[in-house]
Amino acid sequence: MSAAAPGEVVLEGASRAFVVRADPARTLKELFIGRRGSEASGPPPIHALRDVTLRVGRGEALGIMGRNGAGKTSTLRVLTGIVPLDSGSAECGGRIVSLLEVGAGFGRDFSGRENIHLNGALHGLNRAEVEEKVERIVAFSELGDFIDVPVRTYSSGMFVRLGFAIAAHLDADVMLIDEVLAVGDEAFQRKCLARIEELMAGGMTLVLVSHDAGTIENVCARVVVLDEGRVAFDGPTADALAHYRRLLDDHEGSTVRG
Description:
By secondary structure, the chain is α/β, with parallel strands linked by helices. The chain is 38% helix and 23% strand. The chain has a domain at 9-95 and 172-257: Rossmann fold (3-Layer(aba) Sandwich).
């Protein structure tokens, strides 16, 4: 039975570690015996998430902040199912749309219009449902004639325009965004934020990863600060930003002292 109702985001004891090691050339002996003598002395795993537990309610906007490597992107990736957990659970209720990387999820040889149909189909919409949305998506993207050009010719800003325009018209229960809006120009960012507010008024849930305190303040009433894969703070945005700044100051101080 699902732990997350439509629009809910649930993480329970979520943990994930990655092993990052060099791949040195193998000796002839190692090739024959099928093992490496250096494996036992390899680097320790990197813990992207350590027992993370949080719940986001329907219609809520949660900001996630933290230093590089704190676990922000890993959190979104486990919620989308891109990365499996070592232990615990991660679930979003209902239809999920995500903007995690510029250009991700696009067929590079397809036009922008063809990619609208592709993304709609991937999210479970039939052809008639996609057709009903196409012109609104095209208008929102402001790509003009480029909508019928292969997306391999697009700039990063154009990818963001099309990616957000599609995501914002797929009737999502949960939207996950990782920094990509920072690539667009300021006017388009404002347009995206206004659309997010409109969608949230209709009950959509947002999880937004950003280093931009201004964006977080404008959109999110609650912020989680991650540090080394753990929840270091979970609460009101103003208090969370103060905690995040202290965390940065402490880190910079320890770096200087070191």
